[in-house]
Fold these 4 entries.
Entry 1:
Amino acid sequence: MKCRVCGQTASISLRSHKTAFCDTHFLTFFEKRVSTTIRRYQLIGGADRPVVAVSGGKDSLSLWLLLTKMGIAADGVYVDLGIGNYSRVSLEKIKAVADRIGRKVHVFHVPDVFGRDISEVAKGLRRAPCSACGMIKRYVMNKVCLDKGYTLLLTGHNLDDEAAALFGNILYWKKEYLWKKDIALDAREGHLSRKAKPFFLCSEREVAAYAIVSGIDYIYEECPFSKGAKTITYKGILGGLEEASPGTKLMFVKGYLKELRGVKEAMREDGGAAAGPEERFCPVCGYPSGGGECGFCRALQKFELPYSARFEEYG
Amino acid sequence: MVCGLLTSHRRCAKKLAMQVNWEGKEYVFEKPMLVSRLLQELNVSKEGHLVVANNRLVTEDHRLGADDNVKVIRVVSGG
């Protein structure tokens, strides 16, 4: 297989785009695609001060490096869940990239704040580890924006993540979640930071290839709690469809984005009647909540701990 | 075709053989083959995996050499 641009031996074939590239031209292709997504969906403004949610995996570290190459200066935020070697190695990989690009990373240590690791926190809250982890991560990543003055939280969610989530929401007709996913989510002044996903239209395969070709040493190991997760099953099913019919995942997610615009437009015309119930905020910390304290503050209260959301800074 | 785990097939490893790292385990293969054939042998999808030979990313039609150092990387993650 030859590179479409230079005719040299290709290093990756992209069947959904009916093309193949060598290392150099794949990097150019990928970076241009992300740059176009950022521009088309107005994900990052000139006045923005972004922070990247980093996990040590291929997606977030690739995003962090790519933004730096594009001249977009962004720091990182990492939630250390205290999962033994997995969390330690993840942080090492993050620090290596932070050193390479000359940016700092804010680290929230779950064991330091809660006095126990995520599995113990989850047990205490009678929740699944992934549920407790998601709640703490969403809170902490928002908190770093509000406390440190970042205007935008960027995450490495890719096309496969979005397609799998969409597939799950449709499969079980979770209407309460179905139209909430978007490539960017607006801020709620003083309470919730703006969020965006620049890899929304890039496949997991493309992102992994970008990480490898760019020489990013990311963590291959999966989180030990992700075994048997439905998301991975959905990704397998969608991967089978993609092999049989390249481009299916992209059409699925792009089709959703198009439908979403129509749904949002209809909501606006409806005078905001479909916007949902009145917004409520946590009386302790101001984070949006369904009423009363937010999940994070309730978790601290459960363990009889005072409110704390402190970060360690590296770099 | 597949010799199996490197540690349990020292007889194969002594010959010129392709070494493949997959999911943290080392495998050896007796003969050179295309990347697409290797993925078939391992029973893994083309869409969900990338192959690195001698530290370079390679496509499915790339012929792996008998003394190549190969790594099969699963791209799917999440939970």
Note: Chain A has one domain: 31-314.
Entry 2:
Amino acid sequence: MRSLAGRDVFFDSEGFLVDPSQWSEEMAEQLAREIGISFLEETHWRVIHFIRDYYLQNGRAPLHRELKKGSGMPLMEIEGLFPGGIKMGARLLAGLPNPRTCGM
Amino acid sequence: MIYLDNAATTFPKPREVLERMIDLYAAKGVSPGRGGYDCAQEADELVSGVRQRLCQFFGGDDPHRVIFASNATDALNLVIQGAVKPGGHVVSSQLEHNSVLRPLHHLRERGLIDYDLVPFDGQGFIDPDDVARAIRPQTQLVVLTHASNVLGTIQPIEAIGALCREKGVPLVIDTAQSAGVIPINISDWGVSALAFTGHKSLLGPTGIGGLVLSRSFEVQPTRFGGTGIDSQELIHTPTYPHRLEAGTLNILGIIGLMAGLDYLAAHGMESILQRERALARRLWQGLAELKRVKLYGTDRLDRRLGVILANIEGMIPADVGAILDGDFGIATRVGLHCAPLVHQRLGTGRAGGVRFSVGPFNTESEIDQAVEAIKKIAEFRRTG
């Protein structure tokens, strides 16, 4: 547990939120700085919000093709946009839980 | 979709396998051996016929000792838990899948057994001398994979079988990756038990697999129930195959397995192997030329199956797999492949790698597209 964006938050050993409902934009900004993004731009937010909204509506992360279509960006670009890549960058900043399967 | 995850399960299945399953299950899909009606007897004969074919296929010495299970993991659990006794010792390897590691760990945690895992070399091979050195007076079993599900490397089972026979220790092999693509003869090789799955290179459906036991090897039952015979007894049927089977068999899966064997017989296992190796060679050579791409294990492709592990420098394998899928329509398996010790040894840590595994229906064009995709990803990462 650590204090982030004014509240106590639980993270797992890889830095993913244990409880996705604790997420806030302020928290994402602070986490972004920690992984090397000094300022979250519109393209970052577009990806983060799509992933997060999809998760809240469907109870799971978007499929790869859904992420590509929904964000309007190839996955290769999303990977390059976040220093941690798709899983450890975009997904983490969107506050989704850590996927337990070793292939995610 | 370009499917390069055949080490997980072959896909698609041959049309003739699927059609045979539907037709025969529609005609004979009753409970085999149960009931006094003709169709039940015919279903039982069908099952016995598949036992005979599998026995012959794997060089077994008794078709009654072909045991059906759900898959290779299920079969390995049956044989490991049924063959070790308290205080015993098992020798296995760091190349193993969790289908072996987890049953062994479970037994050790319960204080029943101890085990040692022999290493593999930088090329991906176990040294038979290491196995010989690890065997103790208390060793009750040696359990090894025939071919690594991460690296595809084919292990020297014949040499290990010979030394196990000399030392009087039963050898169990996991053929999840090799059955149906590499010729196997457990009698000649000195193997006491073979675990197989039906849904990989045997080209059957998921949910069917089994064990082939040699006559000299006894396995105690670890699950009990109806077998269709000796119903008045509370003691589970002690004779094979019922000794290790309980409940209604997966006859649809068994039909699929039979149809898969038919497919292999018609198309030739050797021919399929050579084709898959040629595709794997094309993939290896293509990837080996790319900057920032690392390949693992031996480049002697005649000593491995069509399984290739790769990584792109500076990228998480899960992301490479996601891009391959989302941007290029290429299905691979990323991560640890349920074989964490292999990745520990390779230095690929918790993230693992990207595994490409070819199957009987891949084409040269698909392999070229996969190489081109990796090239684009690696270049984009450098310049993007």
Note: Chain B touches chain A at residues 315-316, 318-319, 321-323, 325-327, 333-338, 352, 376-377, 380-381, 384 (CB under 8 Å).
Entry 3:
Amino acid sequence: MRTRRMWLGLVVGVFAASLGLPLLGLAGEAGPQMQDTLNAVVKKGELVVGTFDFYPPWGFRDAQNNIVGMDVDIAKELASDDVLKVKLTLVPVPTTQDRINFLLSGKIDVAISNFTATLPRSKAITFTEPYVVDGVGVIYRKELKIADWKDLNNKRVAVTTGSTGEILVKKQAPQAKLLQFDQASTALLAVQQNKADAQIEDYTYTVYHAGRDKNLAFLNKPLDFQPYCFGVRKFDQEWLNYMNFFIYRLHQSGKMKELYKKWFAADPFPISPRW
Amino acid sequence: MPQYVQDRLNIYDAILLLQGLGNTILLCLAGLGLGLVIALFVGLARAAHFRWLSWPAALYIEIIRDSPLLMQLYLVFFALPLLGLNVPIFVAGAAALMLNSSAFMAEIVRAGIQAVGKDQLDAARGLGMGYVQTMRHVVIPQAFRVMIPPGVGLLIGLIKDSSIVSVISYIELTRVGQILTEKTFLSFQVFGIVAALYFAMCYPLSRLALYAERRLKVGG
Amino acid sequence: MHGYVFQFGEVFRELPMLLDGALTTLHISLLTLLFSLVVGTIGALCRMSDIRWIRVPAIWYVEVIRNTPLLVQLFFIYFGFSQINIDVSNYTAGLVGLVVNNGAYLTEIVRAGIQAIHKGQFEAGYSLGLSFRQLMRYVVFPQAFRVVYPPLCNQFIGIILWSSLVSTISVHDLALRGKELASTTFRSFEVYTVLTLIYVSITLVISGALKLIGRQLFRQPA
């Protein structure tokens, strides 16, 4: 009898506690907390950069299991820069959402991982100026004829959870049957295995992978434009300024074009189109 | 453009697997060590006769046992920065394992303490031993013998549970399996090897638990 | 941390979506229990067989599954299906993984249940002229069920909790819904706190109900 009362009390207690939790959500937003990552990085002599390790050609593992890619090359440039000249530590980030989580919990100083700047994400972190402009592309099985978004309706479309592509396809092709995956590589595998008809990913990704697989083709016109930016924490003004200046110099010196040509064998899209 | 196409596993992959194995062992040692300390306190509290000690301990144990380890891991991972502790991923993973295993270990400790017959306690009391002396010389040695077989079982569980820390991207054995599969798409081979490595760690321990149970059978 | 304000309201707004995921969790857990009971019973019978090439594979099945992590088994099955080009849904792959895993544990539970029945019962039953089927139905099964019931309830609770791992292969259960909510609201701590409370509530209610049912079923005559 006593144990039953204890269990009853436990269940009631848990329910009551969970009902009381909304009360904790009444207050307003918190005030700003100034960060100073620039000085922190210089002081500890180490720059911790978050990249992907499963997303060729931006960040992936080579045969020696080192993390390489376009973003990694940029991170190396950043660490060896005149002002910083620090050791570079790469932290592989497992999912798209974790870029934000790792930034907010201080596990990385900056996220350089083909990070598309969007307004919802800007609620949590701050984006720099774009360093590369990409589009959203479709990679599809060659036998299908995909020429536009509406052709994706009633097709099985593989997307990555939480990515910009997922949000776009929901708007543009609402009748598409979505298959969600944690990572782009698994989504690609689904298309290769004919478990999905198409995958929505960044344009450069579709170019790279369609080039590797005879059964796949990529849509020649990117359907949206996606600015890739570095991600930094909010209220970190000096660090943000420094990142922006670094990106500017990367473009000015032609280094960015050189890296882009190395990985994509093409010229990059213009960041600011001329009207 | 540089193309990295890999269709078989190479020596670097083997090295990464070994690194993952080492990290798994590190994770388990950390989770076990501190978890044991917490479990001792919680287990003693749970076995105590004072309600204000045994009920909070029971609550702690019950909540941890009735929620998934995955949730506990995410909670610890997100809660620590909110407390101002920006710790490396390893610490978050070890902390979650430590909390989780401490609850199960506390139950083992409690069972061990309560397995020591009342007559032993009475005899010790009759000999004039105080509480601490009774604990030290009578209860704990005997409780220890009872605790070893389920304790080894818990260690096996801990090794398997450490695979969940892969979701926060700590480079332990399962995460290495994911990395290699992403690279080569040879999931049968990769996860087969990963499973074999876990088996190599756990199976000997399970035989040990059986052996210990047979050897340590307390008569009467 | 000073400055961080908890916003549980955002989570509670989406409670119906989360509870929908909880239904999937319960759904897959029940199916897992049923199928793994079948697997477990077959496994137990194999395990107790006198024929070596039936008994030994059963032993190995149990040992391999019990000494490898569920997550690795799930990945093996999920990605493995992809590699050999079998087209299954994530849900199916998750279900197969859970059934294979729990089947091993249930093999041992069912075996213990059957072996708990004293040999004398079999002899008495046969001497009373009962056939094998009647023996199983009226003597073995009721007694075995009584022995098996507590660990079976425990195992079911375990299934519910560990089913959260299928979220890693994109099955839309409670855990994955929570993860999606966390990625849209950026309120990860609040989301996972509520998720944990939901799991605890489900577990407590189900284990309490099972305990009550058990007390009714196995009521000893006064």
Note: The interface with chain C takes residues 7, 10-11, 14-15, 17-18, 21-22, 24-31, 33, 96-97, 100-101, 120, 123-124, 161-162, 179-182, 186, 189-190, 193-195 of chain A (CB under 8 Å).
Entry 4:
Amino acid sequence: MGRSFLTRGLLFSLALFLVLAGCAQSGGKGNGGSENGGAEPSGERSKVSMVYWPGPESDAMQKVIDAYNAGQGKTDGVEVEMVLLSRDGTYEREAAMMSSNSDEVDMYFTASYIIGQHAPYLDSLNGKVKFDNYLPSSVDSLTVGGETLAVPMDVSNHFLFYRKDLIDQLLSDAAWQAKYKEISQRVLGRELAPKDPAEWNWDDFVAAAAFFSKEYNADSPTKYGTALQLKNLIFNVMIWDDVLYSNGGGWLDNQGAPQFTSDAAKKAMDIYRTIYEGKMTSPNASVAEYPETQAALQSGGAAFAIQWGAAYNELNDPERSPDVAGKIAVAPIPGDHKTHVHSLGVGLNKYAKNKEGALKWMNYLTTAEAMNIYAQNGGIPPIAEVLNANADKNAVLPLIAEHVDKYGYSVPIMAETQQILIVLAEKLSAAWVGQADTESALAEAQEQISNLLKK
Amino acid sequence: MLSSDKAAKWILSAPLLLFYVLMVLFPAGYAVYLSVHDISLGRTTSDFNGLANYWKILRDGNFWHSIGFTLKYTVIVTAAELVLGCLLALLFDRAFPGKRVLLSAVLLPIMVAPSLMGVMYRLLLNEHNGVATYVFSKLGLEINLFDPDVVVPLLIVLDVIQWVPFTFLIMYSGLQSVDKGLAEAAAVDGASYARTMLQIILPVITPIIFIAAFLRGIDAFRTFDVIYVLTNGGPGNVSKTASIFIYEMAFKSGNIGTAAASSVIIALFLLALIPFFIRRLGNA
């Protein structure tokens, strides 16, 4: 009895071990559950594996990969395969791979705000890939210490999105204009006349926010004037940076020292604080980011907002935004019109097995053919010629080309960039919503960032 | 040579022991290794730095703030969930029409992944297009649930909604194992329902309550998903839990060594509580 039990126990344990080992093996081959984007690599061509961001970006990239694998890839002797990690956890998983000097993938997905951290794990592309066609700020935003480390694939910037129908009425209706003057006097201490949003300064922004808020104007067609994004999030700091830079400020002075206690920084904080405490934006803005701002504009809850360029298509789509489709226009950021620019891109893994193949693929990616396919399928490549040529697919593309070229700025790209964004998000988000004193928040941010940069 | 019985015990335990070594001991050991090295994502080398990471974290006000918030959050939600779970269990500890259907409905929230729950709450409570907000407005209630002064109580309420079914399930199971004769004898002696529950039934299920408190407390201390999705620890760091602090330290700031040191400190703190619970369970 005992021996038979022992034998059964041995067999059971062995079976369980084999099952677990089999699961681990198949999980590893799938890259932790990711999907492989292309066909099984042929034996004649070398394989290049590239991490990419799941979502609209990867949908567009798959078309480019298919075209390459069916065309130039044959000439190059390369077959590209996309590796998809979870959208929210891509950078975290890449961090684990990078820190172990993994050669599992040939190319990493990266972005301006994190490329400083990725820099030690990426090869320089200087002299290996040509970037002549690209918008300069997009290449700059992926360059660290003079070395360009990634091919820009998508460019992100901001616009002032506004309800054209409401602004047109404001500019033509005498009663509205009289009310506007009265409200601006109350909020800003002086009378302002309504202007076209393309000419706004920040006082106009605040005055219009008050005019279109029920708090100041019971007859306002919208509940709030604007929709601020005040959640503790680095992407919301990027929007606040527009206010900072458009008031003549910036992250670092000419000596490379942080300047978050500058007058421009205080002005930028005051603008946010005035709007939030004045109820010109929703109190729920404290947890708002891109989707909440979209909801505010789509529902007619807000008259205007600073929002990411990618929002344009959805806001003017009759199916997805029936209440406001056709009524949304864009203008430059008020003041000096500075718009944050960051790029998403793909870099060459320093430990890649197939660098040669990856570089061939990267050089294809920089061609107008590849970028046209990308743009036609939803991507926003930072090449002016491509953006202008695809206006029929997405009407905002030529505007992105124009604004990024004329008004685009990139925050300093260094190893500490993401950490600085995190510090700013934490310190400033509390002050934006009145949970902390503005001057103290800026002073603490200044001190922490100074310490960060000294290391 | 081992007897057949002893050998059988080792062999049958082998898969679990292997799992424990691979999934618990090795990661814990590796975390301790990382915690004594200066290792970050921005550098390709790592240097042994002794207890420097621990010293840095112990002097970090943000770390202590996150611990303080997490402790308060844990105590409040655990207490609320124990009380409500117990009351719900007592309510269900009788026959009534539709009990089975209602029981299934009560358990629904724990079937949903916490991160998905966070997304659902975010959509439901959206001021401009959320269903809950719409209903409130039709009832004449203008509530801004994400107002900074209200957001932490909101997070507590949302946690209670999701996890009361968990404590209810544990205590309901415990009640099923109580000898019905105890309550009947008390009734015969003229004891009221409340007195029977407080002085007879609850003392009997005290070990069950401790188990529920322990499990729920540990889980609440590790809370990440819902808070991360809804507030990301904000505004500022008002709702930043220890888990979010460590996550940001490791994957946003790239400071692997200090994140590992934070994890070790918290693990040691929680480990210190285990003997207390084991003693209480043993005494009960």
Note: The first strand of chain B starts at residue 37 and ends at 38.
